[in-house]
Specification:
By secondary structure, this protein is α+β, with helices and mostly antiparallel strands. 43% of the residues lie in helices and 17% in strands. Strand 1 and strand 2 form a beta hairpin.
């Protein structure tokens, strides 16, 4: 038979020693909780109250928004609404859209006629693309050019802007006299330089590559307006 001393050695180990119990409870009669447990309890209560408050506020705002009580008229909620605002030329009530005027130079009758187009400004490269594409469409609608020229890419390095166009632009230039081709190139360069500082030079690319065309105008080098 096992002696009582051996049985005590092999028995299950208690979860707490006497010293640990003294730390958790100051005395048996008072039953006061250890300060660390109090902190944990208070933090749990605060987290619970915060979660309930956040959830309740969210539900309240959604309800008021559905009832159009606190709806903000000058805020769009998705890309579709933003696109609609940009395409709308009128000034809707309660919504302020800042537009900028860009001066384009359209070749007509051997001269460049300035016109102003209204556009919501963005980053420089995207604005150049939009303005030049509009200028090309104007020239095509007036039979100044016969091909549909598209702007593929626009990027800038200091005062030099690279204008990447599609293949039809080469056909346009080849079918023109030197005077008319020069006028079209001047139209493009002057429109860009006048509106997009600090650009002073424009380099034409065709499908991302350097063109080899040198006549009737030279497209192998950057173009720059003559200074008086």
């Amino acid at each position: 038979m096992l002696e009582s001393q051996d049985w005590e050695k092999r028995g299950p180990k208690p979860l707490f020693d006497d010293d640990d119990e003294d730390e958790l409870y100051d005395d048996e009669e008072g039953g006061r909780v250890h300060p660390a447990l109090r902190v944990v309890a208070w933090v749990s209560v605060l987290v619970l109250l915060f979660a309930v408050g956040y959830w309740g506020t969210s539900l309240t705002l959604k309800y008021l928004n559905r009832k159009e009580i606190i709806t903000q008229r000058n805020v769009v909620s998705d890309p579709a609404e933003a696109k609609k605002v940009l395409e709308d030329t009128s000034e809707p009530s309660g919504l302020s859209v800042k537009r900028s005027g860009f001066e384009v130079f359209v070749p007509r009758g051997g001269l460049l006629e300035p016109e102003t187009v209204s556009l919501v400004p963005g980053i420089l490269e995207e604005d150049v693309k939009t303005v030049i594409l509009g200028l090309m469409e104007t020239m095509r609608s007036e039979n100044t050019i016969t091909e549909q020229v598209r702007v593929l890419h626009v990027f800038r390095n200091g005062d030099l802007l690279y204008l990447d166009l599609n293949d039809p632009f080469v056909k346009v230039v080849q079918n023109l006299t030197a005077e008319k081709a020069t006028l079209i190139m001047t139209s493009l360069v002057r429109t860009i330089v006048a509106n997009f500082s600090p650009v002073t030079r424009v380099r034409i690319l065709i499908n991302g590559k350097d063109p080899e065309l040198k006549a009737p105008v030279d497209l192998t080098t950057p173009w720059q307006l003559k200074t008086s």
